[in-house]
Structures are given as C-alpha cells and as structure tokens.
Amino acid sequence: MSELIDAAAKLDAADPLAGLRERFVLDDTVYLDGNSLGALPAAVPDRVADVVRRQWGELRIRSWEESGWWTAPERIGDRIAPLVGAGPGQIVVGDSTSVNVFKALVAAVRLAGDGRDEILVDATTFPTDGYIAGSAARMTGCTLRPVAPAEVPGALTDRTAAVLLNHVDYRTGRLHDLPGLTAAVHEAGAYAVWDLCHSAGALPVGLDEHGVGLAVGCTYKYLNGGPGSPAYLYVRRDLQSRFDSPLPGWNSHAEPFGMRPGYTPADGAPRARVGTPDILSMLALEAALEVWDGVSIEAVRAKSLALTDFFLECVAAYVPEGRVESLTPAGHAERGSQVALRCSPKLSASFEQGGAPIAGEVMKRLIGRGVVGDFRRPDVLRFGFTPLYVGFGDAERAARVLAEVLVARARPHRA
Amino acid sequence: MSELIDAAAKLDAADPLAGLRERFVLDDTVYLDGNSLGALPAAVPDRVADVVRRQWGELRIRSWEESGWWTAPERIGDRIAPLVGAGPGQIVVGDSTSVNVFKALVAAVRLAGDGRDEILVDATTFPTDGYIAGSAARMTGCTLRPVAPAEVPGALTDRTAAVLLNHVDYRTGRLHDLPGLTAAVHEAGAYAVWDLCHSAGALPVGLDEHGVGLAVGCTYKYLNGGPGSPAYLYVRRDLQSRFDSPLPGWNSHAEPFGMRPGYTPADGAPRARVGTPDILSMLALEAALEVWDGVSIEAVRAKSLALTDFFLECVAAYVPEGRVESLTPAGHAERGSQVALRCSPKLSASFEQGGAPIAGEVMKRLIGRGVVGDFRRPDVLRFGFTPLYVGFGDAERAARVLAEVLVARARPHRA
Fold this sequence. Notes:
The structure is a homodimer.
Chain A (H helix, E strand, L loop, with lengths): L1 H12 L10 E2 L4 E2 L8 E2 L2 H16 L3 H4 L5 H9 L10 E3 L3 H16 L5 E5 L4 H14 L2 E5 L4 H4 L4 E7 L11 H10 L3 E5 L18 E4 L14 E4 L43 H10 L8 H22 L5 E3 L11 E6 L4 H4 L6 H11 L2 E2 L1 E3 L3 E5 L7 H19 L5
Parallel strand pairs in A: 2-13, 5-6, 5-7, 7-8, 8-9
Antiparallel strand pairs in A: 1-3, 4-10, 9-10, 11-12, 12-15, 14-15
C-alpha cells in the first residue's frame, strides 16, 4: 500500500498539469464525477456576479450589444473550437444536447438527400440520443436502426442517411474510432453526427482533421460550464450553406432584427442558433473556459491515460479479486477518461438492501467517505478522471477507500 | 405641464403597488423596456451567488437532489402558473420560446389527428413563431397559412389542425381576444397554441378558465427572469396523456435514470421536458418570481391600464399633433401593457441620417436623456409599462422628454 502512496506522490510531483487544480474551487473530497458535473472554476463566481449586477442590473437592455450578449453563442463556440480540433466559425453554443442532436440529425438527413431513408444509431448510446433519433426518424420519414458502433461499417447501405455515434460510451468509458467510423460513413455517402459529451475536454477530438460533418456536445462535464450549461453544435464550414435546420428560430435569421415574415437563414455558424441565448449560463461557461488558457489537450490526454492506468493498478492491488471487474478497455486507443467498474453479483449477500442495487449502495458509502463517483444501473460504479483537477494521490485514495468499503462489507454475516 | 406633473404625483401617491419598486435594482432611468428585458429583482444576485458558490461549488453533483435542481422545471412552472391562471402540474420551464413553440405546435397537430393538415399562424406574429410554425408544418405534412388574428374564426375549416396566436402583438401592443378565439378554434375541432410572451405578468391570462390547450411564453419580459431566461410550456391537464413531443429527451422519460433504450413518456407536465435543465438561469428566474409574493395580477392590470392611459394623455398634451401616432388600441379590452408610437414620415427631414430609420434616431436620443424604450423597424417607438416598477411620474417624464426631442429636432433647418 505504501508503495502506491509513494508512487502517487512522485507522479503528482512530476505532473506538469498539477498547478491547474488552483483554477478550481475544491475541497479535500476526491471528486471523480467531473464526467457528470465538472467542478466550479474559480473565475466563475465573480464573472456571474458581474453579469447579474452590472450587465443585467445596470446596463439592462444595452448589454445585448455593449456586453456582447448577442454574439455570445458564436464567440463561446470559437472558444470551445480548439479543444475539439475545430477552426473558428463552425460552432455555436446554445440549447440542450438533446435539442442539438435533433437539429444535427434532421439536418444530416436533409443533407443526405432523397432516396436515403435510414438513420443508424449507436445501440449503446446514452438513451436521450436514441429517443431523439427516433423522433428525427419519424419526422423525416426515415427508419431507425440501432447498431453497435463496431458494426456500423457493415450496416451502412445506400439507404443510410445519417449515423449518430458517441465518441466515448457514457457507461463503459469506451472510446470509439472516430476517424475510422467517420470515413466509413462518408464512404457510404451518409453523414455522421458525433456526440462528444464524454470526450470534449478529456482528449483530442480532431473534428476538422477527420472531416467530421456534424457534432454536438454538452459543456457541463469536462468543460466545467456548470449545471445544465448550454450545449454546442458543430457544422463543418462547407456544409453550412446547406444546413437546413428543423428549428429555424429568429436568432438563425440572416437579419434577426429585420422582423421579416419570411425566413432567410444566416450564413455561417449562426444558422444553427434558435432562440434568445441563455445569457447567465452562457457567460458562466465563457468564464469557465478560461481554465484552458495555455493548456494543451494532448497533455490533458496523456495525464488522463496515466491517471486511469494508475487507478486500475491501485484497484488491482487493493481490491480482492472477483469483487469488481473493469468494463473500461485496457487499451489506450479504446479508453476515454473514466473507469467503469462492474460490481460482482457475489457482493449481493452483504450489500443488497431491500432490493436496492449493490452498486448504488457501494457508491453511497464511498461518497460518505469522501470519494465521489456515481453509479449507473444496474451494477456499474463510474469514476471520471478530469486531468485539470484530479491527481494521482486522488486515484490512489479512491482505490484504497473502494477496497476498504468492499472488504469491510464482504465479510460473511454472523448470526 | 405642471398640471400633469401634479397629476402624476397624486397617482403615484395613491398607487397600491408603488412599494414594489423596492423589490428591484433600479436607478433614475425611466425604464420602459421591461417588455424586452425585465429589470433585475433585488433577490436575484445573492440567490445566484449561492447557486454558484455553494450548490455547484460545494455540493456539486449532490445538488441535483439536495438543492432541488432536478425538479426545478416543474417547481418553477408551478410558480408561474397562478400568474397565467393555471392550476399546478401543467407548466414546465425550460428551453427557449422558439423550441417550445415547436413542441407545442407539433403536439397540437398530433392531437388534432388524421385528416387535419393545416396550421394557421398569426400573420402579425413575432417572426420566430412564423418561422418555427413553417418548420412544424413542413415536418408534419401540413400547409401553413398566415391569417390576421381577427380573421381566424372565418379561416377555420375541418382541415385546420392548429392555430398559433399571440396574446399581445409584440409591435403594436394590441391584446387579442383569447377567450373568443380559443372557443372558435376548439369549436372547429382544432387546437390553439397561445404565445404569452407579451402578456404573462402584465395582465390576467386565464388559461384554465378559458380552456386553453397549449401555451408558451418567455420569462425575461414581465416576469423579470433575466437575459434569455428559460421559457415555459403549458399543457392542459387532460391533454397531457396524449401530448406527443417531437423532442422526447431523457428528461421527459417516465424513468429518466433507468437509462432504458426504449422511450416511455413520463406522466404529467414533465413529459414536456427535453434535456438537462439550465440551472443557473432557471434558479435566477425562481428568485425573480418572488417579487410576485402577495401581488394580484388584477391589480397589476389595473395599474398597467392606468399607466398607459396616462402616458397617452401626456403624449397628446406635450407632443405637437402629427409627429407621432399611436398604434396601440385606445380600448382597454384591446390593449396590452405597452404603447407603440409610429413616427410620422414628416419627421424625416430633421431626423433621417444617412438613411437610418427615424424611429431609431429618436429612440437613441431618448435613451441619451434617460428614457429607455426600444424601436422596431421601420418606424415604431415601443414603450413597455411594467406596473411592478414603473410609476406615473415615469410616464409623464417619458412623454415630456419625447416631446422635447421631437420638437427640438423638428424645427426647419436654416441654411
């Protein structure tokens, strides 16, 4: 045990990103739930106070122009762009991920054109993508077919219009092959829509490099934008003039204040906007993105892999065999920035409480001891590693406390 | 002039709502643009600071449960409900107005059923409603027909599925006959969708009383929720089980954390939710709604009419005839809570500057002298009267400054 504690200390001492933790408001909790809600960046509270008190309270309506409210969706989109490998002018921020999935999928089907009437959707996806894809299919006269990501190349036909894929699986943490799958989809004459919720801010995405056409993502996980902060939509530059939105709100009009009865879409990324942008949340996100100043996403990726490797090593060393099993791929090329551990059914004797899921009870005890992850039904413990503020000492402590919780409770009950 | 100043002072002294102004952060500006962006309620800054620093910064992910984040859309919906005459459990807050118009219209068409394939839309509407109605029509196989509100009863046929109407016209301030038009639409077997952006918080709406089926509205005008604060959607209780959303995000699922691949809609108002709620903006709105504690919307309406009457009286007294013309109906039954004045083309000689609209130049000068309204192309000055924080003295001063601006500049140029 002390060897791993020493190893963690050495790794932390040598970590070039260790100083970034100061850019966040944190306590001594081991916070491994940044893949659900990122921690609070230190710059956010004062910025939000200024937005509320001065921009809204004093300047009021003038702030739409003077405080840059109106152009925030594109401006903040350009701030996210380098983190996902996109040049400027291709991302707008606004609406929820679900709404953006709808915009992107319907637009993809329209781009694909007549004769293509099938949408493929990642069968392992976070459910909302599947539900929204079902609606997009219904409303565009398409059929919807769930397919495991690895089987997408074999499932493509000349009727495939669009394919909705997750870059990283929300449950297992598996990283899918964005370059290869995108190329296969394009080869078949269809459009790929990538959901980057669990990859943006944790690893390089390379949207421009890999020729991705459309992508969406949330901003409250590894981008630390705050609870329910607005999502974003990427539309590749050469597709923008043919991007045909199913939600053509006035913000997407070529002349929004012309108040014209006829709709003429704006050029460029603003075409993907819809209604009035949600300024408080949007400007909190803008302040949150300042933590990325001078940070390379490649360095973040290197630390993320080192952290998850080290956590898995500690779990293997501390937790008796057979209690948990990693669902997260061992290979770096297939791993996102989280570790998902499945609780063994053998644990049920000591943990099951009135039918409640074992993993839920284990996570509750971990949280009670200052190690915060989350659980996903029925049996998965999720530990997200945000390299900007999680260290190797955190990883060691999380594994150690996990082992203590599992060992303490796995003893046979004595009557 | 001094008579009207005295009259204003007396009216303010007798105003039972005068004390509500203290619930807002205001300066000596005459702020008549609350129909675009409501003023900052005094309770908001501290509440938002608490949401950011404690709920997000300290409790982090636990706040979804412990701080009531997850249930905010319904809880805040119930807070808005009495202001629009709705019983609890029928309103959810979230998304923009445009997105809610889409949800409501598509759901209305689906409620209307087969054989009904036409959507009527208020031809004088705020443009986004028309654009979104166009998309809803396109995606449900309907045709779209713009009709002036007064002509709706004559335009209804047995093919009409849905009618999208504005309660108050954003430009002229005209109040439409919600009870009568709703009854006519229902009589024809169609569904009315009401846009309450310019009425909610300014006058009684009576959604339940008049049997309205679906309604949407923004919260940043007379509800003072802040820039781009989330909109809301009302679905009448007996329609909820048949409400078929085109945006069935995971928040609308019967068991959102079940993460099931199949979609089963929630019962009740949450069925109209979509994605993760935007918590900072939503809880700012919740704090903003506290200004309504103990305030009756009937009293607000009475003051609103008195204010607009008095403003029109002052304009008539101060502004030389022929300079401006009111587009806002004189009859109380047809008036919202704003006064729209059209600038006479005769003003152009002295105001037109390089082709810029006259009304824009007039409004710029008014703002420079501390009277803030806005202008709508090509020639309309809009003055919104928010009875919670606008007084009769403000109305008198606004009319007086307007007259000074118009008279000063309307003198013939001397060469």
